[in-house]
Queue: 4 jobs
Job 1
Amino acid sequence: MLKLDNISLEIEANDRKVKILHDINLEFEAGKMYALTGPNGSGKSSVTRVAMGIYQPSEGAVIYNGEDITTLDVSNRARAGIGYAFQHPARFKGMPVKDMLEYAFKYSSGYDCQVLRDLGLCPEEYLERALDNSLSGGEIKRIEIATLLAQDPKVRMFDEPEAGIDLWSFEQLIDVIGASHREDTTTVVISHQEKILNMVDEIILIENGTISMRGDRETIWPKIKESALCGCRRSCRLEEEEIYADCPR
Amino acid sequence: MLTALDKKLLQEIADLHGDPPGAFNIRKDGQGIQRRSLEGIEINPKSDQPGIDVIVSAGKEGTVHIPVIMTQTELSDLVYNTIDIGPEAVITLVAGCGIHNPGSGNARHDGVHEIIVRQGAHLVYTEKHFGEGEGGGKRMLNPKTLLTVEEGGYAELELVQIRGVDDTTRVTEVEVKTGGRLVMYERLLTDGEQTANSDVLVKLMGEESTARIISRSVAQERSMQAFNPRLIAYGPGRGHVECDSIIMDQAVVRSVPEIWAENADAELVHEAAIGKIAGEQLIKLMALGLSEEEAEEAIISGFLK
């Protein structure tokens, strides 16, 4: 469905070019769920941002349903069926939640505020509220995810959906992401959470801008855990079920 | 008799379709053309100068519309209105001015509103400005609002000007007495070569007097805006000033909030920000399928809501 073909990405930082991604080859198929995981700064978000058209790759091509969309802008990729829930959602002074949901529904089915309820937000309480700093990190994050569910794209990319979300909402979030996944959709989740990694068909480990491991959950998860172990973690005597993200390395 | 143009202007500035509900006075091209008083809401023309007196009795509840429309070029209209909201009354007052300048001469309206919100009264005051015209003549609006909020009174001002007015200097002076509350929203969008100046002076006179001033503006193209909200606490009052501007193209925005306390128990805060539309906001809306232009429009209209 969505293919990243030999993608490299260079960005300019402090007046010099830095290579963020090196020769990434990935194919996301319809009906499957994928997790992108890896250390902070490894390039996970850059991969999905290239797929969304937010970053232009310096080399390689983005192919969607057999068509080269490398030069297609963000708006047109969204209309073609690619969607993104951001890790750090933008805040909008004055804009009510209701308006944002209306924009999200513009290219999908009719307006339905059930998407808020699915994420534990009472529409009566939230629809008129502005998407500004009066919302907590967890609230704005859940609204961000609700907009992606409202948009209902064929390719859904969730960038660290669990970040800033409390434990109770996290369980609900996993249920919602799982339940809304269909045979004709592709779900890509950037995450460090074991529970999310457990629900996907394939885990892709990104390190230093390249794919260092990939495979199904059973084969890849033990390897990831092993590679993520550091001396500090061992000396802390962390239990097996401690999640990868807690490692202070 | 109102023409189709008059009705359009009234709809723009006062959301009026047909006769206003409640008491009203419509002023057109320098003259009062329609007026209706109600029991407890008296509207009378002034005898010594152009303008009206609106007198609301104690405890009265209702709506008052006092729009001004101008449809001629080369016209300068100066008007003095006095509005007296009696104790414990609850009133929504819709003012505002719509100018359609058909020619190349200037059309200018200077309105002075003196408002008193008496003890325990509640006033919601909306003033919307609108300008249009094909002749190239300037549309100029200079409102001056002098407001006193007496003990335990509440006044909410909503001052709006979205496009169409070439030149405006807005003066708002408010005195908030003990236990009085003021909330003021100002929303402004300028484009082309327009200029807008807003000077606000709020004096918190006594205990528990509070004020909140929220100013949001968008400056586009080569327009210029200047804000100077000043908040003075003479007693232990509380106040907050927030000036927020989106700047675009080659526009210029100057924002100078001032807070000034003369009492150790006063609490005053000001915030001012000028910045362009954030890239992450545009990207978010574009990721929902909006074009860049649609995203920009959505951000601006939300910001000015």
Job 2
Amino acid sequence: MTHHDQPHDPVPARVQRPCSLLTSLLLGVCFFIGLLLLCEGLFRWTDLDRVFNWRSLGTYHGQFEIKWFELKDYARANGGVDVLLLGNSMVNTGIDPDVLTAEYETLSGERLRVFNFGVEGLTVAPNSVIARVLAARYHPGTIIFFTEMRDYAANNGLEVERQLLTDEWMTARQGGRETVRAWLIENSSVLQHLLFFRNWSRADFLDASLMQARRFADTTPSGYEPDANVGENIDIPPDPADPEEQEDFMLFSDFSIDADRLEDLKSILELREGGTLVIITEMPVHPNYFTYFGGEGAHDEYLEKLVPFIKENGGVYLPPPAWQRIPLFSRVDHHHLNVIGAILHSRMLAQNLADLCLNQGTCLQPAAQGEIAP
Amino acid sequence: MNVTALLFFACAALAALVYQRLAPRWRIPWLLVISAAFVVTWSWLFVLVLLVFSGLNYALGRLSDPVKAHARAWARAGVIVNILFLFLFKYSDFYLPQFSAMLSSLGMLAPGSALQMLLPVGLSFLMVQNISYLLDVVNRRLPAEKNFIHFCVYIFYFPKLLSGPVERARTFLPKLASPLRVDRPLLERSAALISTGLLRKLVLANPLFNLIPAQAFITPLDYPGQNLVFWLLAYTFALYNDFAGYTAIVRGVSLWFGIELSANFNLPYYARNFTEFWNRWHITLSNWLRDYIYYPLAWSLRRRFAQQNHFFNIFLPPMVTLLVSGLWHGLSWNMLVWGALHGLFLVLERLPSLGKTVVPVNKLPLWRQRLGTTLTFVLAALAWVPFRMPLPLALKYWQGMLRWTTPDFLGLARTVAGWSPVSGWSQFNLPSPILLIVLAAAIFFDHLQHRAGTEEFMLSQPRWFQVLLIMLLLLVALLAFFSDTTAPFVYQGF
């Protein structure tokens, strides 16, 4: 009887040889790269990109990134974009492109693809850069830039401008040095998704990312972010003694138009040289807003300088709808509109634009034929 | 150059390849060259300071040779010189402002910035190594090193330069003279140490540090007590994983040169009492303190107070040793309190021995061992508070930990159900779930090491798990490359 025949032999314990960690290291690297490539393919060639739409460019400005990706998706879905609305948070929450498009079509008979690229905190300086970048990429027929007095205060928005415009990726988009990092961010879809989680180990990550995800969800495909809040005491002028208002009073009480900022406006107006129609307008803010700058008189003085400058540089100035036509309950504060205000304003803006087209011959231009978004 | 940087590994690998190709007599000079090059990445002035430091200690070592006259006096002088050197550079913050102000008032140039520029990295670690060298020479435990280049490598050797391990010359110099053969098993061990170290640093320590809001250590009373408790736990594990990770990385890199550096950590939070804790935490420094402070003091006291259980014999050696440890970490009241607390814990642990024979900890019933582990962990964690922040803030932090507020579970449920808009996490007064996950991972990581019984536990894991950990490490490293946060090694500050 051999030992194989013994019925009650215990099963010999399997000798576990330790795995080679060096081999595992190599396998880990290969699998990781393979997984990244697989995800890249899935994000590029399937609709997975839209299911997981939280993306980032690694910049400091979360809302700018939302608009960037929404515009990319919008252009992809609609075959391009005809009209870009640029400005700050007032534009972001104050114009619904879908309402504007529908109203304009009713009045003028032309259906245009309009996208709201209003980004909070951006003055004319970063907007002039963004306008050039977007014009080069999407070739819109028309750019409507919503400007306001704060754009021309020399000390306003400097930090946002510095952080956004000096970003490695943004620098490359402006025609600066294309680094490996910037190239990867621009071209890798999987990296853009991963970048959303790049600060996962920061204490404020959950707060910031949940908010960012919510804003991604709230922003409509045409770039409008509705605000449901209703402001209080809008008909009362801001009080310089109120500690919460003091910063704005300090920034704007000695308001004067900064020459450099005018140059930035000029660079937006120069986009007409590439065939883009540039319209400059304002939002219908409540007149109490001008208290920070010294009252409505200061605004009139500002317009007396700004409007001729726009015309001298070949631009079109479109006066905003009368502020009285937007009731107080349609406002969030002195200068932002809520969801009702945005609908009202979008209609009025469409009427003004149609009026400009029908009566003055300056019509919104669609993107040139064949100019399709990347 | 940071030891987690890709460039560091690339340069070290290249240097190791050259080292293996060189004839044996050129290898040690080569180690000196690459170590000096590593120092130059911080500042070339550091090389000069370290050369002066090495030359001085080399000469003092030769003079401390017991066959020579006045050897003991030279050794004592050497110890004092090293301590002065430490004060001159490292603790300059304490005297330079006043000194500079005095010179400025006399119209003279203040030396502050020059001294700070020259501050060599890892000076505290170098100082204790030199003191041990001089004392070992004079006590005939080690012959004075005759080869200046060998001695310089003992000081400069780049893997241990920044934050140790604190190597003794009597163990390091023989390893230098006859290094291990760098073969496949050694490279496997090296890979295990490096991957463990990187996982500890990048996946556990950095996130745990960063997940604690900076303001928590500045205005602790602004936060709910339960969050302060979890942040202290996070800090407790972050600090350990940071230093243990660093040590594992440099030990792994050192193996590329066939030189095995001493282990520094052995699951300190598994310690069943504080004596065990100090045999598991920063082992090389603890052993140094034991050999050069604790034992000499204990023997000296025993000569004065013959009774073994005399209060002074019980109280003074641990208290003085841990106070010195506190001062080594930083010349400040909070570090002193941290040392004093640990000293106190050790004294309290010894008090029962005054009245009866103490049962060794491993002979105690299991429940008492577990209780001991829990108590030791809780007290060690509480003691990290003054380690992290100045005393007034530490007191506030301890106070704040008792002020719990009811978490907003209802709000959380409403948000999860989609009835309330998502607007953040901090409104719920709950610790971050990410922090809890990383904490759980840190505990699991230690559990793996405990089960395997070795720091090189990666070697005994199944293939799929090894691959998974490597992929996790790569993912975290990729995110860290693009992230807006950095977390330098804490112990590089000492």
Job 3
Amino acid sequence: MNPELDPELDLGIDRVIRAPRKVVWDAWTDPDSLARWWIPAPTVCRVDRLEVRPGGGFVTRMSDDGVAFAPHVDACFLVVEEFERLVFTNTVDSRWRPANPEPVAMTAEVVFADHADGTDYRVVVRHGDPAARDLHAELGFADGWGGVTDQLARFVESAR
Amino acid sequence: MAQCPAELDGVFLALADPTRRAVIHRLGRGPASVSDLAGAATMTLPSFMKHVRVLESNGLIHTVKSGRVRTCLLNRERFAVVEDWLARQRRLWDERTDRLEQFVTDPKEENTP
């Protein structure tokens, strides 16, 4: 419900998904379903905690071999409105301990609404200021990371 | 999701030099020999080789020796680590949404446990 979005720090996704709102909600809130799409294959996702309620833990781990699992997300739900909205943050972990998450602190708001073709699915991810952002200044890239990325994209595209 | 900071440092260190950026720029158009690349730089070959080694040890290029000619090639995949951090987060969420969409719209998924 807070529309504030800083284009330097935040991102928004707005997609119509051709499936009923409840199906999309269930894909998010059922651990076995979430594990199927949360991390790109072939990396294996394990959902350790998915307590879909305000204050509930959200913990996923990932593995390249299906045996050794590394931390992925350790977050906490802030807002849960059934079939309508999920808000979670990794700045407070699943045990409510203040965290300094890598690579960047964020709060994600996921909104599910009915649409004639299925579900109007919107995500707003609000980020903290990642430490890595300062790296370009240290290295003297006057145009910042965006400029470097554009340049590199041009270098790489020019050969295609 | 997380980038290894040491890896990122190395890539940026490699790119924080005009000679090395010029090499990357040239290799964007295709492979080139060390001697051709060195010819465009205003320094001795041993000095230039140091730059080549920095680029190679940080994975931005690789080199192949054939007879007396050492050819440099751009390692394009490596540039993903210097992608703008916000663009990277956006790609992560875009791809995540692609997978969610596929999961809920693929009829094969419906009856799988």
Job 4
Amino acid sequence: MDSSYDIVVIGSGPGGYVAAIKGAQAGKKVAIVEKADLGGICLNWGCIPTKALLKSAEVAYYLKHASEYGLSAKDVSVDYPKVMARSRDVAKQNSNGVQFLMKKNKIDVITGTAKLVAKGLIEVSDAQGGRKNLQAGSVIVATGASPRMFPQYPIDGTNFITYRHALDLKDQPKKLLVIGAGAIGVEFAYYFNTLGTEVHLVEMLPQLLPIEDEEISKTLLASFKKQGINCYVGAKVNEVKLSKPGVIEAKLADSAGKEVALTVDRVLVAVGMVPNTKDLGLEQVGVKLDERGFIKVDAFQETSVKGIFAIGDCAGKQLLAHKASAEGEVAVAKILGQAKHGLDYGQIPGCTYCQPQVASVGLTEKACKEKGLAVKIGRFPFSASGKARAIGHTEGMVKLIFGAKYGELLGAHIIGSEATEMLAELGLAMKLESTYEEIMHSVHAHPTLSEAVMEAAMDSQGKSVHI
Amino acid sequence: MPTSMLMPSLSPTMEEGVLAKWLVKEGDFIKPGMMLCSVETDKTTVDYESMDEGFLRKIVVPGGSPAKVNQLIAVLTEDKNEDITQYLEKALKKDQEQLAAKSGPKAAPAPSPAPAAASNGSGPARAAYTPGPAPRAAVAVAPEPVPASGGRVLASPLARRMAEDAGIPLTGLAGSGPNGRIIRADVENYKPPAAAPAKGAKTEGPVQRPLYGSLAPIAPTQDLPLNMMRKTIGKRLLESTQSMPVFYATMKVDMGAINGLRAQLNRAPGYKVSVNDIVVKATAFALREFPQVNSSYMGDFIRQNANIDICVAVSIDGGLITPIVRDADLKGLGLISTEIKGLVAKAKAGKLAPDEYQGGTFTVSNLGMYGVDEFTAIINPPQAAILAVGGIQPEVYLDNGVAKQRDVMKMTLSSDHRIIDGALAAQFLSGLKSLLENPVWLML
């Protein structure tokens, strides 16, 4: 095999493999280096397998609440290994899908760990100790990120775990402490609670999902409490101690400073991510990192070294799969000399797949206030939606924030069943620079949950029909 | 059951097209999606696809003939041998009636409301004049005026709103979105035309520094970038001079009566009527008398406009713009004066809305205030003429052999000879002259 390529992509997550395909589609000779499974964290240990687990939890919820729908379900129990097996199988199928896409696009998949030796030279060493050199016209670094480690939480994979271990647990925890209420913490808290684990969710900042709109997070907090999740926001973890295997003593200080003592059998640590930028040879070839270790890039994802690009989690900003893919497209366009615009990071949607789901794009109400923007806000609660009542999910709302002067969509926030699917039209609206008028005058099918989007746009002008 | 096949409207502005060629013949069985005929519009030639099914029984408009939009062009039937005589007669009669209704009052210069077909461009049918600002269509749905290059202006809803609010013409913006779509950033990054060198002279009076014999360093040769406005002005005016045969006719007006009238008018509290206001009013009056001058050359026909919308040339930083006094013939001098003042202020501030400067049926350009005696102006197509007005100058004339002094003003009409002949221009000018010399007629 000739080892000279137009583009070598390091890492095959949703950033890397999309970039590789885009490059190959443009007629470039492309190789992708992966040390583990194709598809990266997203497909194998993140987005996709967690959604499989969450679906199991949702089915469990329906079975438990079958009587509300006029059905009875007896002797419902969780077969934990089978829940896990389903999730792993889904991940495997997706990874195979990427394998197929690489083959279809004639992309060479090289298994091993990559290291930049020089600007256009990459050394790949495989698990068997084999080495090979790849020459690359351009390099795209897409190595992702890993859970941040803290000395006070000694991750051992059995007592102290990260999302990675949680996706491969042999047994279901009975009592679980989740530290960190970002998307990962919140999703696992919902998942384990719905399957019957006693869950304690602690967040240092004053709200669940700290990057989401305050009002939305409050709605989520109320719902989580109703579901029986013990939530502590604005709280501190003062001490966690492994007294013996399977027994962890934790001392929290709640928002009022009151001490809460807990005994749990598992601690899931979900407090931030760090970029995978070590041991890649980046600094040696002159690629600059920021103080937190993320690779510094320009608007077109190019690093401080011409011809070396970085995309996805390792390049900072939002750590989201779709943002990585979009950056991959930008980087390839730049390599092809076709790039016109970089990504607009103000228009990256964010989704959390607990129930009720949380989805948003654009600015929160608070961020608008901090920017001094005059806004008009429209809300529509699902309790006023016929479809929501019919499907038994009346929790949540659509909240849309428009500029007061021109009526442009500044932020869209949805909490409720299917919120993550409903968000797409608002991302499009924002991209097209739509105003409330286009949204409220787009006829939405009845009955759908999405009607709430149209109603919220109307409400921003005090013209909602159904509230 | 026979069905009518009608002339399609292939663009929003299409009123008539030429059915260039039939691609099927009588007796053929037509299926939806089949190419029926090619239709020539003012812009292009398009193949017209059938949406109906049936036997093509009768071609009403043969290949090579013009047809109005929605005119019957052919008849289809379900049954191959069905009798269509009666149906055809009825349909043809209906067509005739419609055509007659459309073209009837078009030619008459009656002040009564004319039907939409005869009104100017895509605007609504002319209605009786009501004071106050005309209602403006919502920006989001209003079709953008077609720029000189043709085609629709692509712009995001937000960009449209922002541009309207800031008075930036969308046609003057370069879009950076997909396919040149104008987006928010383009409006935000819009730089108003740079201050022209003339600015100093205009606002601060005569230049004070010594022009000659000075040792002050001379500015080096500079290559100044063309802003969008200069580009548009250049393009449109070049197009104008290259595309039409123009002739000029000048006439002298005795301004004695106007001077007297102005003195009286301006004693009315709150009014300051300018000579130009009176010229606009009188021009509108004269255009009503000579509708041929209030026309547009449309390629294969001449449109005689029902509305008299007079553009007033205003010099602004970096260029010029021609805001419009709509229905100037229906407005009193006071209203015209107030409107022009408002439009000029808005124009100088760059805050004109597109409907305040797009359209118009005739233009008045006045350089009298700069001390110009007389000049010729370039016609703003598709208008047929433009009036260039010079300044008021005293002159000595002979009255029965006695030398006397009077104030005169020279005005020059540039006319598109394809529409306006010399005699017509002369008649129009002399009608206008009479009005200006007898301004009391304007009260009629």
